[in-house]
Amino acid sequence: MPKVAVLGQRDAVLGFKASGAVAFPADNPGEARERLSAILEGDYAILLVTEEIAQVLEKDLEPLYDMPKPVVTILPDARKPQGVGMELLRRRVEKAIGADILFKGEE
Known about the structure:
Layout: E1 4-8, H1 10-13, E2 22-25, H2 29-41, E3 46-50, H3 51-56, H4 58-61, E4 71-75, H5 84-97
Parallel strand pairs: 1-2, 1-3, 3-4
């Protein structure tokens, strides 16, 4: 079974442990960079990153989006419907199918 890593604020990632994911809590930018390095050294197929931490690590995560492993997905912040996570999801869906089916007509 592929390993899943979840990187983000402590209160946001610990719940993922129940699903078998490995939680990497990071409460500040320094911890986030250290945890990301540890994840990249491990054998993780999927990396879920909370939106807040993804904004902090934007330049570190950008090259990973085109790599086959780990597949990086930003967990959208429910309080920010137009945030980084939803924009990344929109771009990926549009790239995959050639059309913006998620947000068509909402702009």
